Amino acid sequence: MGYNLLKGKRGIIFGALDENSIAWKTAQTVHDEGGTFVLTNAPIAMRMGQIDELAKKTGSEIIPADATSVEDLDNLVAKAVEILGGKIDFVLHSIGMSVNVRKGRAYTDEKYDFTAKGWDVSALSFHKVLQSLYKADAMNEWGSVVALTYMAAQRTFPDYNDMADNKAYLESVARSFGYFFGKEKKVRINTISQSPTATTAGQGVKGFAGFISYAEKMSPLGNATAQDCADYTVTLFSDLTRKVTMQNLFHDGGFSNTGVSQEVIEKF
Ligand SMILES: NC(=O)c1ccc[n+]([C@@H]2O[C@H](COP(=O)([O-])OP(=O)(O)OC[C@H]3O[C@@H](n4cnc5c(N)ncnc54)[C@H](O)[C@@H]3O)[C@@H](O)[C@H]2O)c1
Fold first, then answer.
1. What's the rounded Cα separation, in Å, for the pair 83 and 61?
2. What is the pLDDT of residues 165-206, one digit of tens each?
3. φ and ψ at 191, to 5 degrees?
4. Closest C-alpha residue for ligand 1 atom 12
5. 262 C-alpha vs ligand 1 centroid, how far in Å?
6. Is 27 helix (H, G, I), strand (E, B) or coil?
7. What is the CA(201)–ligand 1 centre distance, in A?
8. Given a cut of 80, is residue 1 above it in pLDDT?
9. What is the DSSP code string of 168-180?
10. Which of 32, 46, 169, 268 could bridge across to 123 with cysteines, CB 3.0–4.6 Å?
């Protein structure tokens, strides 16, 4: 169902790898709401993923960019403005990767060059994206930028490993850059703290299957799916949320404010 909430708006969507990706669902939903956009991902992900299919379905162009490379990001921003025919109204940062997690290194046994790489990809990349947009003056007034995060930034989930620290940094960037982008360009910047979701990145976390079921039973409304996240993101890109900025917005069926649920008690 479409409400034309994004009619006439132009954007950049990072991170659609396959049809499970939150960014994939968001791209489809933005398209249904009348928005146009360019898709981007790391060059390596282009080879592994099915982004061409999504581009065809949504009538979008793809511009490869490694989100850790300022040169790639500057090029992406310039090309997006050119292709879309004007400044940008919305951006989705949907990027995450921990080398320590991938290599099975525990939080108490981090290899610090892995840590630094994961931080660059998952957290600093958000600052780099924002700085490229800001310096190029590429955002329209009342534009909106959203990045995806997880509650491990506030509370400890042992297997989330160094991604917890990366998400804490990412959320802080949204507040800090949100100040300058808001004051000077009337652009809003928020993070959505999403339920565990069965995607490539999500399933990389150890014990994911048990964890997603636990969260489902702890959340009064059940876990938010990738499609739910896409719908919520569209509201944040729309003109209906123009004064929401510098927030970390929990989108988790109530998990973050639930101490325990009846279902979980019954398990014991
Ligand atoms: N899945 C979950 O349980 C969950 C929960 C909360 C938040 N999130 C966050 O949602 C976001 C999207 O993840 P997802 O779950 O859709 O998984 P996903 O694996 O589909 O997406 C992650 C994306 O990051 C991209 N990426 C990795 N390195 C990159 C680089 N150097 N440059 C550009 N892109 C790069 C990947 O190619 C991929 O498209 C991430 O920030 C993730 O941490 C996920």
1. 8
2. 999 999 999 999 999 999 999 999 999 999 999 998 888 888
3. -115, 145
4. 94
5. 32
6. helix
7. 5
8. no
9. HHHHHHHHHHHHH
10. 169
In the chain, the domains with their CATH numbers are: 10-267 (3.40.50.720)
Say what the pTM is: 0.98
Can you say whether the dihedral through the CA atoms of 11, 14, 16, 20 is positive or negative?
A: negative
Q: Token match 């630094």: residue?
A: 116
CA separation, residue 148 to residues 57, 171, 199, 210 (Å): 24, 9, 13, 22
Gyration radius of the chain over CA positions: 18
Query: What pLDDT does residue 97 have?
Result: 97
Q: Using most ligand atoms within 8 A of CB, pick from 12, 13, 17, 93 the residue to mutate for ligand 1.
A: 17
Looking at every residue in the chain, the average pLDDT score rounds to 96
Residue pair 3/76 in contact (Cβ under 8 Å)? The answer is no
Q: Are 245 and 182 in contact (CB under 8 A)?
A: yes
Alpha carbon nearest to ligand 1 atom 44, residue: 202
Q: Which of 169, 228, 164 shows the shortest CA–CA distance to 195?
A: 228
Rounded Cα gap, residues 62 and 30, in angstroms: 16
d(CA 88, CA 140): 6
101 lines ligand 1 (CB under 6 A): no
Q: In what order do the strands lie in the sheet with 10-14?
A: 61-62, 36-40, 10-14, 88-93, 139-149, 188-194, 248-251
